[in-house]
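// run 5 | inverse folding | seed 20
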């Protein structure tokens, strides 16, 4: 394999269907800024695969034999040195693993019937550190799973945030983009970006998907709220 430029997003595809792997690989490799560095048919030995291929983004099917996508995501997220971002693939609008995968470290979700343009866009968005939730994986669905009773709200998680940062965090958890948050809170978009960056730093979070998880787990946002 020829040397891949450092400004090209490296992608690993993990899916138990060979046609899916081949189709996604052909599509992504056709993009000048994306390169498929490997494929796998399930999550077995995923940490070794990631270390060998050094992807920036992993396209991860949820439902696979041997080691499923949820367990594989947990293993990758626990890697100590710069784990890749994970974009989960599912065939179900209401997949029961949605919130569990976000909690485990996934950066986004996309349905397998997404258009080629949506897939390419999703990889780029996740590579840049943004959260990506398919339009069909609705905000209501995320809220429903996020509200499952796992423990008492962990309000202490937000102790270091200012009131404005909590407001911004609330809007991020509701699925709004920076421009939308700016309009809602009457702020400049750059100011919103700064607040998001400070939230990530103060709470030790990796990306917007983890902001969503923390907002629900802390009780800042509730289902239907």
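// decoded
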């Amino acid at each position: 394999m020829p040397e891949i430029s450092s400004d090209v997003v490296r992608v690993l595809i993990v899916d138990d269907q060979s046609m899916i792997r081949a189709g996604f690989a052909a599509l992504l490799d056709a993009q000048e800024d994306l390169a498929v560095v490997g494929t796998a048919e399930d999550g077995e030995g995923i940490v070794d695969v990631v270390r060998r291929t050094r992807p920036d983004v992993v396209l991860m099917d949820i439902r696979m034999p041997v080691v499923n996508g949820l367990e594989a995501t947990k293993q990758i997220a626990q890697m100590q040195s710069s784990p890749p971002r994970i974009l989960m693939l599912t065939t179900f609008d209401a997949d029961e693993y949605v919130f569990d995968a976000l909690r485990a470290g996934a950066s986004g979700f996309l349905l397998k019937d997404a258009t080629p343009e949506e897939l390419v866009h999703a990889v780029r968005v996740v590579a840049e550190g943004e959260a990506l939730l398919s339009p069909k994986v609705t905000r209501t669905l995320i809220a429903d799973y996020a509200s499952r009773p796992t423990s008492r709200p962990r309000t202490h998680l937000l102790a270091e945030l200012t009131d404005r940062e909590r407001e911004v965090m609330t809007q991020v958890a509701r699925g709004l983009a920076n421009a939308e948050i700016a309009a809602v809170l009457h702020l400049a978009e750059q100011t919103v970006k700064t607040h998001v960056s400070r939230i990530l730093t103060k709470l030790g979070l990796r990306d917007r998907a983890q902001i969503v998880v923390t907002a629900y787990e802390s009780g800042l946002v509730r289902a239907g709220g």
